[in-house]
Amino acid sequence: MPREGSRRAPRRRPTAIVCDPVSASPISTLQRLRADHGLKALRYCGVSVVNVTVGVSVLSICHGVLGWPAVGANLAAWMVSTVPAYLLSRAWVWRRSGPHRLGGEVLTFWIMALIGLALSSLAVRAVEEFTSETVFVVLGNLCAYGVVWVAKYVFLDRVMWRQATKG
Fold this sequence. Notes:
Blueprint: H1 26-65, H2 70-93, H3 102-130, H4 134-160
């Protein structure tokens, strides 16, 4: 309740932006996405930058410097980058704290991470059939994870760490 003499207007709920796929313009769709996801999507991108930097660094060192096969280097990159990705996503992107739920969070996140590992391993193995150049192995890895990236955000946001809707 505002104090007497206070000029602050009462807080209003933002107007919902409805998206009708038949009549929605690209601008209205972007406005809805910005309203629905805004800073959370930017935080997700930030976590992804950290995760990609760590993963690509490990992949490049293991494959390009140490001479490991692409799939082994990809596995090492996945092992090093997945734990920070989970912790940063949970705490920073979706603002979760407290105990980690093994079945509801940890295992689910790791299953999604394993799907990404499987797709990226197939991609780097396919690339290695044509060339052993590390830059192409890294590109194969990035393309595979790019496919998983959007689906993972939607799943984490809508299923695993969905926010309770306010009345």
